[in-house]
Specification:
The structure is a single chain. It is globular, with a radius of gyration of 13 Å. It has about 70 residues and is mainly alpha-helical. It contains four helices and no strands.
């Protein structure tokens, strides 16, 4: 049996955004919409995912980074 865990797509997105804050390209106090320039053509998808999880584009990036578990239910 394969013990490989599947990482939730939002975890990968969260890690990418965390990397942006680590590199000081954005701050935790910046608004979520500010990462849209980095994600280019993929932004619409991620924006819809964030909205589905109850975020607004005015929420601070720190709110995204604080999420510990992503449940689709």
């Amino acid at each position: 049996m394969n013990n490989t865990q599947v990482i939730h797509p939002m975890v990968k997105f969260q890690q990418q955004v965390k990397s942006l804050t680590d590199k000081k390209l954005v701050n935790g106090t910046d608004r979520l919409w500010q990462v849209s320039l980095v994600f280019g053509n993929d932004w619409q998808h991620w924006k819809n995912e964030l909205i589905d999880f109850g975020f607004t584009m005015q929420d601070p990036i720190a709110a995204l980074l604080e999420v510990e578990a992503w449940d689709d239910e």
